[in-house]
Design a protein that fits this description.
By secondary structure, the chain is mainly α. It has a domain of 96 residues. Helices cover 57% and strands 0% of the residues. The termini are far apart.
Length: 153
């Protein structure tokens, strides 16, 4: 019986990782410009391909889960009357805030790259994404200030 996790074709595919089952895939061809159906031809472009993944793209969800859980616990504790300086709230902030800062910074890098990828294609979409970069930076500063206030409370 052939071990499907170590099939020779699987190792030739850059998407394959150790332990993954080998899939019967068609060979990976060079990317080509997709042909639009007649109903969509002449409409503005809807997307621009991503040229490089952000540093945390593969770990983004795994890093976001502890943030979600810590945030839910901290908010619930505050809603139930715990003071901002309670050990439970501080622990949640100490665990969740650094991860939230890192994931938000990674998302901001992705938005930044998207903005500059859109500039030659559709300048207004690029500028709109730059506005989101500015909003993300303001949000990061507010997040860090609120985290510091919670830790020092």
């Amino acid at each position: 019986m052939n071990d499907r996790t170590t099939a020779p074709l699987a190792t030739e595919d850059e998407r394959w990782e150790a332990g993954m089952p080998a899939l019967d895939r068609q060979p990976v061809n060079e990317p080509r410009q997709p042909t639009l159906p007649a109903s969509l031809q002449g409409l503005p472009q809807r997307s621009v391909p991503e040229t490089a993944p952000t540093p945390l793209q593969k770990q983004y969800v795994l890093l976001s889960v502890p943030v979600l859980i810590a945030g839910a616990i901290a908010i619930t504790a505050l809603e139930l009357g715990a003071p901002l300086g309670s050990p439970l709230v501080k622990l949640c902030v100490i665990v969740g805030a650094p991860l939230l800062v890192v994931t938000t910074a990674d998302a901001t890098v992705r938005i930044w790259r998207s903005a500059w990828a859109w500039m030659p294609v559709n300048r207004s979409r690029g500028l709109f994404r730059l506005a989101w970069v500015a909003a993300s930076i303001v949000g990061l500063v507010a997040l860090m200030a609120a985290s510091l206030a919670a830790i020092l409370a």
